[in-house]
Amino acid sequence: MILKVLKYSFSDLIRSRWSYVYLAFYLVLGFVLLFLNDNLSKAVITLMNIVVVLTPMIGTIFGIMYFYNSREFTELLLAQPIRRRTIFLGQYLGVALSLSLSLVLGLGIPFTIYGITQSSQIWDFATLLISGTFLTFIFTGLSIYIGLLNTNKIKGFGYAILMWLFFAVIYDGIFLISLVIFDDYPLDKFTLFASFLNPIDLSRIMILLKLDISALLGYTGALFQKFFGTSQGLIVAFAMLLVWTIGPTILMIRKSSRKDF
Amino acid sequence: MRLTTTFLLLLIAHLGTTGVLKVCPSCTIQTIAAAVRTAEPMDSILVQKGVYTCSDLEVKKPVSLIGEEGAILDGLGSGYVLKILSDSVTVTGLKIINSGRSYTKDFAAIYAFRANHFTLSNLEIVNPFFGILLEKSKNGIVRSNKIYGASKREDDSGNGIHLWHCSNTIVENNEVYGLRDGIYLEFVDDSMVKNNYAHDNIRYGLHFMFSNRDEYLENTFRNNGAGVAVMFSKFIVMKENKFTHNWGTASYGLLLKEIYDAEVVDNSFTENTIGIFIDGSTRINYLGNLFKQNGWAVKVSGGCYTNKFFKNNFIGNSFDVSYNSKMNDNSFNGNYWSDYTGYDLDKNGVGDVPYRPVKLFSYIVNNTPETIILLRSLFVDIINFSEKVSPVFTPDDLIDNQPSIFVFQ
Predict the structure, then answer these.
(1) Measured distance CA(B197)–CA(A171) in Å, rounded
(2) Does B248 reach chain A within 8 Å, measured CB to CB?
(3) Which DSSP category does B326 fall into?
(4) What pLDDT shows up at residue B129?
(5) SS3 at position B279
């Protein structure tokens, strides 16, 4: 049943053409980047800046828009003998999967044509795509949860954008200021901890360390390198991203089962 | 004319008197020590193929030791191998293995003391403590040698080519790797270090101190533990050297400390954590250098005055210039910056808007190193932009008023 809802949401999004636009955007971006600099490694760095900021934003906007737009259909489904969990999980996975597919195909095709599979950058690129996919899932989930909390569209939309803004910009601002203020204290543990609490920071740091910028990070970087450099650290980081994905999903399901439609 | 004839006659007479002694396992002279003992001054000793034990051998007369292919000196793992204590000694073409190792003495494969006009060339020195150690010697040549080891720690390894209190010496075309410092100069004046390749040494590729009026040309320093460090020297010239991939938390392409009146010209710095770290160095001209994909291209610490950066290319560095104070007495006019976003309406190749090479984030990182973890985040881009529009924290006179639109060739 969940697959049926998923399939419906998925094909609904595909039909709405926005998935194509999103796919086309990444295709153009990938080709232009590789056309402008032949260096795969540099292209991956530039791409990181875009993926880490853009995928959460697109995930947020699509998630909340889809939730509000498909409200009538959701109400129709709710009238059927289907479990609420199935409906909302299906919709969520439908949106997140179609967005992730656009990302992976849109960037994968140009980079494969330019020979990423034969290059040593393949793992950096894979990390980039995996964290991009995670970010899409996390932020779609969070925005649908916000949608469930707010019946008022304008309010919901506002909160969703604010949520994105918080994780993408405001969090780093607070992070930076607290680092500067508590300069006299040992901050390495705090830095590690604080970066775990923001999926965007976590993905960014993971990719940065993969891209051999770690030496820049000095003493702090040494700690991070020691942590993420081992396969154990990498597993912990991915586990954290997984927690970030599952957390909002559980919240969403719990909210949906109690919500009065 | 008469003078030339006299000279030629003298030369022929001289050649006539110099003998050639052959050393080989089946010759009458079977050891290097015996050959050196029997040789007359200005004789040549031809070392033929074979392995010769040779430990603490003192060369006290001007002779030439010429190795044929496959001639190996074995130091048996104790003491020095060759000690050159006379002027005009030439050592060439030998392979030297098993020189001694010590924590109290600077054992070297080839050691020279008060030896002038020496030539050390085409030697292959394998896994030495010190490779070539020259003390108080003048007018020598160290050329086309290959010195390599497999050192792991600084405290139980020595330097490849080490000069102490020398002058007018040429060190060229050598390759040094896997030792502590590749090339080390202390109190060495009026010398030239040219076209050497020092790589994968555990400390510095090139290290010099208190060495004035020296030239460093066309050398390549790659992947050394801490890059290249030069200190307390005056009137030096560094030209067309390559500083590549000195990558690590305490690694520099080039560290300049207390250097005065120097020229740093046409060098390339690629993929170093810090391209040039400048500390207390004054009146230095940086001209035509390439800084590409470094973490920090130029990091300026305190006490640097009237340095001039001119016609350099800054391409794709994480930070172009980092400064730790608001005071600036150095000039950055007329460089190419790949991060420059201005325009050139009059098409004269010079940007119409000044460029600020110091970003706010680099200022913050200087004060709180932990903040580097926010590198490349959106927030950092935003604060950099706002600082660019109206500088508050970064030195407001640190600007390039004539940023080039085109890359300098």
Answers:
(1) 47
(2) yes
(3) S
(4) 93
(5) strand
Residues 6+ apart with CB under 8 A from B249: A215, A217, A218, A219, A221, A222, B273
Do B244 and B222 form a contact (C-beta atoms < 8 A)?
Answer: yes
% of chain B beyond a pLDDT of 70: 96
How many helices (H) and strands (E) chain B has is answered by 4, 38
* Residue A217 touches chain B, beta carbons under 8 Å: yes
pLDDT recorded at residue A213: 63
Q: What is the pLDDT of residues B292-307, one digit of tens each?
A: 988 889 999 888 999 9
Element (H, E) at A31: helix A18-36
Q: Which residues of B touch A172 (CB under 8 A)?
A: 374, 377-380
In terms of residue numbers, what domain contains A199?
2-258
User: Does residue B371 sit at the A interface (CB-CB below 8 Å)?
Assistant: yes
**Between A and B, how many CB-CB pairs are < 8 A?**
83
Q: What is the mean pLDDT of residues B101-128?
A: 93
pLDDT at B16: 47
Report the alpha-carbon distance of residue A128 to residue A51 in Å, rounded: 8
CB of A87 within 8 A of CB of A74? yes
pLDDT(A38) > 70:
no
Q: What is the pLDDT of residues B37-51, one digit of tens each?
A: 999 999 999 999 999
Do B162 and B184 touch, CB atoms closer than 8 A?
A: yes
Query: What domains lie within chain B, and their CATH numbers?
Result: 19-206 (2.160.20.10)
